Amino acid sequence: METPHDPAAPLAEEHAGSRSLLDDIEALYDDARLYLDAELSYQKTRAGFVADRVKKTIAFAVVAAFIAVLATIGLTVGLIIALTPLITAWGATAVVVLGLLLIAYLLVRKAGKTWNGMMAAMNSEEEEMPDDG
Fold it and tell me: Could you give the C-alpha distances from 50 to 46, 57, 66, 81, in angstroms and in order?
């Protein structure tokens, strides 16, 4: 039983036998250059996609922050209006402002503790590094 004969097989063997090392290196160089061009193109496309998404994310975050500020203003005004019949307009304003200032103070303290913790971690890492001098 005969196996089908591939007419290109002898040519490939003949071509492989007659190729020089220089031809193989040139082919490898061409393949590497083609791969590098394709990879650079892919990474440029990917970077463009990421940049577009970052822009959209920042835009949505800015709009969300603006709306959150408007909501906080609305809550502040609403609290003052709601408390006015109970403790007068000046009393309601004072209670709401002092409450907001207390929240801001607690958040600033928390931010300070977080900052100090980060700085302590950075300083301890620097102290642990060997001194080359």
Answer: 6, 10, 24, 46
- Domain of residue 114 covers 19-128
Q: Let me know how long the chain is.
A: 133
Report the C-alpha gap between 95 and 43 in whole angstroms: 56
How many domains in the chain?
Answer: 1
The two three-digit tokens of residue 90, written as one number: 């000046």
Residue 120 has, within 13 A of its CA and on its CB side, a CA count of: 6
The answer to whether residue 11 sits within a structural domain is no
| pLDDT tier, 26 (very low <50, low <70, confident <90, very high otherwise) | very high
**CA dist., res. 55 & res. 36, Å (int):** 28
Find the mean pLDDT for residues 121-125: 81
Residue 74 burial (CB < 10 Å; 0-12/13-18/19+)?
exposed
- Model confidence at 6: pLDDT above 80: no
The answer to whether the predicted template modeling score (pTM) of the entire model surpasses 0.70 is no
